[in-house]
User: What shape does this take?
Amino acid sequence: MILTHENIYKGVSPEDTFVARTDKNKMLGVCTVMKRNLEMLFPDCPTQYVIRTEGDPMSLAALYGAAVARIRMLHFRKNTPARAYAEVEVDDEESLHVLEALGFQMTDGVIRMRRTVTGEENYHLLQPGCTIVRDFLNDPMERKFFLERYNACYDLNNDDEWLNEIIAQPDFARILMVSTEDLCGELLVWTENGKGVIGMIQTARRWQRRGVASYLMDDARLYFKSIGVKEMQMDVWKNVPGAMPLANAAGYIGDTPILYYPEMDL
Assistant: This one.
């Protein structure tokens, strides 16, 4: 088996891309490493290295080993906390086995949580001077500002095409809390197979820990109630500070993983 650097994916440098090939140049698998600054999600450990692989299981050990070596080189002599994690499908036992052997901890992942749609009023207090607004992200400037906020939060570079796919979902809406001065928080909702989905929620930094997210999530419940939806779901990244407590407090339950994030602190 031979490992090479190749320019395969847009936005990922060849140095961060490893390709496993046979001696006859047949491609076996590909692995990428991406560095992200997720300060808004992980203020105590903002530097995150993301590993993604695809291909033949026989190439996994070599690809993951190369990715870990690359991450250690990128983080060499940096006196700051950082974390490496791999995105792994729940049925990918081969990857989980290799990552565990490399020292990754199987403690993180995305959990799908659900609750029934009940009740007729919002049980949280609206912040003084604030207003709830629902729109559909039709305004070009609002779309631009939303993308800027979303990309900054997750250190991504999503574009209008990505946003169009979300807006095209059935029953799509955006719910915002705004003050006289600024945006307090927002979330996106839509339906899938007749179930309500909270697809994204974020709170402006100066409005955090003031009940904004709780109010928005309850308003999403009222929105789904108004269109006849009986059940809601949201996918929660377990290790994001406050995410699981927020979901639990909003009445969501469940522990079904839909994606694993084995992790390693550097």
In short: Residues 60-74 form the longest helix (15 residues). DSSP finds six helices and 13 strands in the chain. Residues 150 and 251 are 25 Å apart (CA to CA).
